[in-house]
Design goal:
The protein is mainly alpha-helical. The protein has one domain (4-151). It has 7 helices and no strands. α3 packs parallel to α5 and α4 (82-100) packs antiparallel against α5. The longest helix has 25 residues, at 4-28. The protein starts with a helix and ends in a 10-residue tail after the last helix.
């Protein structure tokens, strides 16, 4: 018998990723927007299948994405060699997320996307960190909260009552 929670989690992931994809495509264009959706897809796996994981909590979700995206934008702006900028962005993101206690593995993808995302991402500069990255992470967090509270009757984030 199929349990209810995985069905709801899959449905919630689908709906939130549609919203995030539309926003990303609006801001970045079709191809770059879909590429960005990949990091949010990885976040959806964590948020909707393991909402109580330390990596699924609001600070790691939001902080991990924005810190990593900012590092990626910085590397893209100052390092001309893609083969150096991309791994440096991901590595520095791991370091920063560890120091700031906001480890969220999809944040590493946000850093890479900032480096390899193309002209659309590059043209946004640090605005990329706010929209679409921050906006998308907040949408994912709100969706996770609503689904857990009102549909699955469980707490999110950890420690909420």
């Amino acid at each position: 018998m199929i349990k209810f929670a995985p069905i709801v989690s899959a449905g919630a992931a689908f709906v939130s990723l549609v919203v995030v994809s539309v926003i990303s495509q609006f801001v970045l264009g079709k191809v770059s927007g879909l590429v960005l959706s990949a990091s949010m897809g990885a976040s959806a796996v964590l948020l909707f299948s393991a909402p109580h994981s330390p990596m699924s909590q609001p600070w790691p979700l939001v902080g991990g994405h924005i810190v990593s995206a900012a590092i990626g934008v910085t590397c893209a702006a100052h390092i001309d060699t893609l083969a150096l900028a991309a791994p440096l962005a991901a590595s520095l993101s791991i370091l920063a997320m560890g120091v700031l206690r906001c480890m969220h593995p999809p944040g590493g993808a946000a850093a890479l996307i900032a480096v390899v995302g193309g002209k659309e991402v590059e043209s946004l500069g640090y605005l990329f960190v706010v929209c679409p990255i921050l906006v998308n992470a907040v949408i994912m967090m709100i969706a996770t909260y609503l689904i857990n509270k009102f549909v699955l009757n469980r707490f999110y984030p950890n420690g909420s009552a």
